[in-house]
Design a protein that fits this description.
Elements: E1 3-7, E2 11-12, H1 15-18, H2 23-36, E3 42-47, E4 50-55, H3 57-65, E5 70-76
Parallel strand pairs: 2-4, 3-5
Antiparallel strand pairs: 1-5, 3-4
Helix pairs in contact: 2-3
Length: 81
């Protein structure tokens, strides 16, 4: 799977996923990213004019906190049910 730069302002976070946000975890992760860089890319799928976050909410929020505009991400296919 190829890693691409995903614009943070084009990432949509589903409401159910947003409810799991832990601010303390975001701050700790931001500090770790400053020291070690982003170790694990996020996972997104392509939606209409945006990316839909599948995995990596705390990494996205930590990158925003650090003032980043892009984040490394894997593009995954939408799952059919």
């Amino acid at each position: 799977m190829r890693i691409v730069d995903v614009p943070l302002d084009k990432i949509y976070v589903p409401a159910a996923k947003l409810k799991t946000l832990d601010e303390e975890k975001v701050i700790a992760l931001a500090e770790d990213i400053l020291e070690n860089g982003l170790q694990k890319p996020i996972y997104v799928r392509v939606g209409k004019d945006r990316y839909v976050l599948q995995e990596g909410l705390h990494r996205v929020e930590a990158a925003k906190l650090l003032g980043e505009t892009l984040i490394n991400g894997h593009i995954v296919a939408a799952q059919r049910k």
